[in-house]
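Running this now, will post back.
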Amino acid sequence: MTDRAVRNLANLRTSASTARVLNLLRVWDEHGGTDGWKAAPMFRHPALNRALILKHRLRRDEVDRFRVRRHVATKIILPIDRDDLRIGGRYVFVDQIGYDRTMEETFGIGPSHPDRQVLALMDELPGLDPFLLREQLRRNGLAPDPCYFNLTEADLSRMTDFVADEIRPLVDLSLGPDADLAAENPVARLTAKIMSFTPGEDMSALGATLQLDPAEYEEGVFCWKGFLYYKWSLRSVIGDIGGVLDGVRRIRPYGRIEPDQSIAIERAREAVDRRIILTCEAAADMLRVYDEAFVSMTQNGDPSQFRDFLRDAPLLFTRLGERLGAVQHIVSFWRFRTAKGKPRLTAEELLDLLADFEISLSGRERPDVVALAA
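Update: finished.
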């Protein structure tokens, strides 16, 4: 199959990995000659290890490619010519109908091949955020070289500090607010356990208190970590999205604009503006479910709501990740496409861009967390 979104594919060549895109072609460009890239690849098959992997919002004519109804799929794009992405690429969706046959015919890899495991783990995630992708692979015994993850030590340090502040009430609950934190530093110890949690990590006491079986608890803690990451990410997203909204409202296309295009652009502006705001509000509502459950346990002494949160966390985590991933994609792509030195958008290009944003947000603005929060 050939990807018809040639414009977007060509633009991805020089863009970094984001919450929606894992740009292994750029990783190869920048790190392909390093020992780390060679010794610990993301994929063993060389074509896969230079592919573009996207979290793709399925269009109406694509949903019937899957046996189970879904809205987002993991899309593997193989450029026809890695030096000229304008030509396009062949693609396949993970777990689409005929997936096994396609993978065998294209790559010669069967269901038991290690690369299939990596793709399945990626498909389980709502997005491709570098932090969560690294944690998902690591907890399943996989450790690709750090060059595959767009993470800086500064970002990891800020994330760790944020988690420490968030879980401090849990330490106060365990030791009392008057405990000598400087002497034992239990906050740092618990933060390290949460940040590095893997099966067998010594956090069984909390799981026993919450009356969760080990598998349920392990999955819940991973999603809890995901919620903390998304809560941390939302702060910067909220700050960035204002500039994007302002840009969408102000931008004027280059060249001649037909009357019908002008009307369509104004309608698209309003739709994107409304959906971005509602999507951010829906994400904030979902984070509030976590906040209320955590407060109920740490301040009200009732762990039942937090236990229910951990049980529901995988579903909430997926929905939250899809929403934030869509907004983060819009922020990153808007910055990329409107950066200084880029060609100005024509009316047709602006309509295409706004339509892509609208599709990305479609359905994500609904507050479907109410039932789970009740």
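The beta strands are 21-23, 52-57, 72-79, 89-93. More later if anyone needs it.
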